[in-house]
UniProtKB/TrEMBL annotation:
Pfam families per record: Glyoxalase
PROSITE patterns: VOC (PS51819)
Domain called VOC: residue spans: 2-126
Signal peptide: none
Top-level lineage group: Bacteria
Record-given protein name: VOC family protein
Amino acid sequence: MLISYATLGSQNREAAKAFYDLVLAPLGIKATYADTDFVGYGPDAEGAKAELWICKPYNGQDASAGNGSMLALNAASRAQVDAAYAAAIAAGGKDEGKPGLRDYAPNFYAAYFRDLDGNKLALVCRAEA
C-alpha cells in the first residue's frame, strides 16, 4: 500500500460524519474513531485502523478543496460504486461524473462527486462486470 492514510478538511465535522457514514457504508467502511474534532474511517472489521480522517485543518484556517486534488476509493464491485455514489448525491454531494466505464484502463468503472466541503472523490472498481 502506497498511502498510509488520507485526511480531508471539513468546516463541520458532524455534517461530514453523517455524509461519509452514508457514502462509505456500501464500501464496507465505517467510522472506527470519532470525537469532537476528528472522525476516522476504516474497514468494517475488528481492530481495523482508520485510513481516512475528516477534521478541521490543523493550522486553524478554513478547510478548502484543492483544485486538481482527488481521493479515489476502491470498490469491490460496480454495484458498490453505484450505491456509494447514490448515497453521496442523496446526502447532498455534488455530481462530478455519473457511474460508468471510463477509457482510462480496462474495466475501469468509476463515479465522481464532491462532498459537502467541496472535496472531490472518486469511487473505482476495476473488476470485470
